[in-house]
Design a protein that fits this description.
Elements lengths: L4 H14 L6 H12 L3 H10 L6 H14 L3 H14 L6 H17 L3 H15 L5 H16 L7 E3 L4 E4 L1 E2 L5 E7 L2 E7 L6 E4 H7 L2 E2 L4 E4 L6 E14 L2 E11 L5 E2 L4 E2 L2 E3 L1 H5 L3 E5 L3 E4 L11 E4 L2 E8 L2 E7 L7 E2 L1 H6 L1 H7 L1 E9 L2 E17 L2 E11 L11 E3 L1 H4 L4 E5 L4 E4 L1
Parallel strand pairs: 5-13, 6-10, 18-23, 19-22
Antiparallel strand pairs: 1-10, 2-15, 3-4, 4-5, 6-13, 7-9, 8-9, 9-10, 11-12, 14-15, 14-24, 16-17, 17-18, 19-23, 20-21, 21-22, 24-25
Length: about 425
Amino acid sequence: MKVTLSILFALATLAACNNKPSLSTTAAKKLQALLDNKEYFKLETQVKLYNDSLSDEKKLYYASFIDNVFNRNVDCINDVDRLLKNFPDQLPDSVKANMRRLQSDSYFKTYQYAKAAQTDSNTLKLYSKASSKDDIEDLKKQILLRGALKNVVPQQTIIKSNTSIPWSHNKLGLIEIPVKCNTTVYNAVFDTRANISAITKTYAAKLGLHILNVSFDESSGETGLKFKTSEGIADSLYIGGILVRNVVFEVMPDSVLYFSGNKFQLNMIIGYPVIEQFGEVHIYKDGKMTIPLTPAKTDLHNFALDGLDPIVALKKGNDTLDFQFDTGASSSLFYVSYLNKYKTEVIESGKKKILGFYGAGGSQKKEAYVLPKINLTLGNKTVTVEGADVLQQKIVPDEKFYGNIGQDFTKNFNEIIYNFKYMYIKGN
């Protein structure tokens, strides 16, 4: 049979495509280490760098994580489906379990509660032998929480025009905004790091929330103390001129949101799932908050999500460090990773101190170094965190980040912009 030159050329081209350079063992370990350590910004950069050497399986594997952390949840859901459909034999059950849990997180972030609960149930059923005891317990909790929401209509936010909202500091130094339910206006803490909005039992009754028949154990941030909560749904809330429907709240005992050290009762917290649907939020130093009708695109890309925790990339000198970012914290806190990276600097300039943490549910004490200052850069502006606390012990066993950035950092800017569509945090 005669073979034409065009066919030979096509075959040669196909062979060249199929014989692309494979990823070296060193590079593969590097990518996995970045993922394990939650260095998402560096991972995204390195995956692009090694793209020509990655197999189709690995491209989908890393794309699933990258799309998830950069709030491209529909893409993440599709990435995982394609990965598990096209490469079922190459993936161990432990990886399949992790991918399905990642997919469930994206379902939840897009308010598809029933699909999130079903995905978690299937993961527990199919891959329990490949999951750790802690993962199994976490899955059971998620199934309980998300299963209770399976018949809840997805949250909907209606923004008709550019919106301006006043804010003020409460006794704890936290940002509070007015929230209207029916005809009554209530003060609520504006907290980007609250994984879900929260409310006391007393205020849940005042707002007429629909309380769901579910109860689960929860723990409070820095104190680590555990308590039981339930879930409730607000039919509608107004934040400025913005209407938010079907808002999910964690309903807590009043005592859990009582801060004994300050003798102050919190009653309502507006958390990430509500704030994210705003698209873009500008917080001005003078007590004004604005939400534009259309989020703006820039080249800045320094914002990610670890589950529902906001993460920001900041520079310290020539280093880029990933921090949790928390509008609900009056001061920043630096973790053991920061101490380990800059140990000589911290020990030489820091003073030892016992810190008291007064959080929801109680208080705890931890040893720390207090530094005179730490300089960090957001975008093109370098600011100083004075009297910086650096912990000597981990708050949680799997702690990965360098700290939690609070208002002692953001107060140095006249304006902070959070963009959840194009994933950047900018300071002016």
